[in-house]
């Protein structure tokens, strides 16, 4: 089958179009989009393949898709803007604005800890159901009631799914608005097609997410687990659909707000958000952006199973997971390979989204695109 590919590609960036085409021909891509802006100007804006598993609906420029943990940096941005506005400080205790959180050994957890995966709540202890995912108050109350898995600030562990409810509730407590509302205002102002909670009227634009064979989908027996094994399993699968398994293509999942996991958007939307972070009128002050994109926590992460470095929502570039060759670049991957990043040194802002989910963040698909971008500059 000849995969349909369409859109803009400056002739200088022909290598990106070729890498994108190769992803379909050689690397199992089903449907995807990639967008590259340089100093705010689009040089690549390509879409290709199909938005459904049956390959009957072509991917369109306005197709939305679940981009998973790409959303972590976005919900963190919403919190960081409140820091910039002087409404909170990074080292304020979370309990100072969310009193219910200050129980179970979490009294000393700070907003900085929350943003860099050191707050001690990567999993919820109370057993929940998938119906709870649509109830923001239910989810955040369960996070608040969970005893810390370790002393906050003493170590990190990737908050796979709780991150969105933890940081998102900080946003709500300080601003009085749900994360999806604040994101909508920000995104509309910069023309970025990104969402927490896709309205019913917009859901026909959503691509089907296709899980690679053998990927976990939930329904885990926790009864024989303990310690970190239990923590990791609960983090992924309490409730069973917390990682989207089995419910990802439902209207209920798409309309819920699970900012760590179920953000939706287009590649162009992701790229425009990152471009706005490094523009002449940036979304964050230069000092706070520099703080947010430097290493805040380093060490082994039991969830990721490797050494990890975390900034404040954003991940700094690293040798293991590079965002190009330059040391100030920053961004965030999502499950299956979705990616947004910016490189202040070249003015590059990058967005890539796809619907065929393969393990885990970094893949031959997104790495080939990154390498093609920087070979073209």
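^ Assign residues to that structure.
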């Amino acid at each position: 089958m000849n995969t349909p590919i369409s859109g803009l590609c400056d002739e200088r960036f022909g290598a990106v179009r070729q890498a994108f085409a190769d992803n379909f021909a050689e690397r199992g891509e089903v449907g995807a989009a990639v967008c590259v802006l340089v100093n705010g100007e689009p040089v690549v804006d390509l879409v290709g393949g199909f938005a459904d598993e049956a390959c009957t609906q072509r991917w369109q420029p306005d197709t939305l898709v679940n981009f998973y943990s790409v959303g972590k940096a976005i919900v963190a941005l919403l919190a960081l803007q409140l820091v910039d506005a002087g409404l909170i400080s990074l080292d304020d205790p979370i309990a100072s604005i969310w009193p219910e959180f200050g129980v179970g050994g979490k009294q000393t957890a700070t907003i900085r800890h929350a943003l860099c995966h050191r707050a001690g709540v990567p999993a919820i202890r109370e057993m929940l159901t998938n119906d709870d995912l649509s109830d923001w108050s239910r989810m955040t109350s369960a996070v608040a009631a969970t005893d810390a898995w370790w002393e906050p600030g003493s170590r990190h562990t990737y908050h796979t799914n709780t991150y969105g409810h933890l940081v998102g509730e900080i946003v709500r407590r300080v601003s009085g608005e749900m994360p999806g509302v604040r994101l909508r205002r920000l995104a509309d102002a910069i023309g970025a097609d990104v969402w927490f909670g896709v309205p019913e009227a917009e859901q026909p634009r959503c691509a089907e997410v296709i899980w690679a064979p053998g990927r976990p989908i939930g329904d885990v027996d926790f009864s024989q687990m303990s310690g970190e094994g239990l923590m990791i399993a609960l983090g992924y699968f309490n409730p069973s659909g917390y990682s989207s398994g089995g419910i990802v293509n439902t209207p209920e999942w798409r309309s819920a707000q699970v900012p760590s996991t179920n953000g939706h958007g287009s590649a162009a939307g992701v790229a425009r958000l990152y471009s706005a972070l490094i523009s002449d009128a940036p979304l964050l002050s230069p000092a706070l952006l520099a703080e947010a994109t430097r290493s805040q926590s380093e060490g082994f992460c039991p969830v990721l199973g490797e050494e990890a470095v975390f900034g404040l929502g954003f991940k700094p570039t690293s040798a293991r997971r590079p965002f190009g060759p330059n040391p100030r670049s920053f961004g965030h991957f999502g499950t299956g390979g979705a990616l947004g990043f910016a490189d202040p040194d070249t003015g590059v802002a990058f967005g890539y989204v796809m619907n065929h989910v393969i393990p885990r963040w970094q893949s031959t698909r997104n790495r080939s695109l990154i390498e093609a971008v920087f070979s073209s500059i």
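The chain is about 30% helix and 15% strand.
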